[in-house]
Fold this protein.
Amino acid sequence: MRKVDHDFAEQIRGLRLTTAEVTYYMPDHPALLQTFVWQTQDLAPKYPRLTRFLDFWKSEIDAVIHTVRIAHQGLIRPAEWRFADCQMRLN
């Protein structure tokens, strides 16, 4: 019997690769925005893992969240292959 890939099994259950870009600032430097990128498998549209992460951030980290941008891959589909329109030469 074959073992199913863990990531594929999560995709079958509805989880998708989710990327969150958190823009934040430190309280002593509110004019300086910084970014943090975080990825996980999560369930859209409620994003329970991302919500837990942001709740942890708010309670444990001094940085103040300014904005959060979310991107996720919505569907299971075959990988895309494209040919590059260039030639390279190795010596």
Summary: Strands lie at 16-26, 29-42, 64-72.
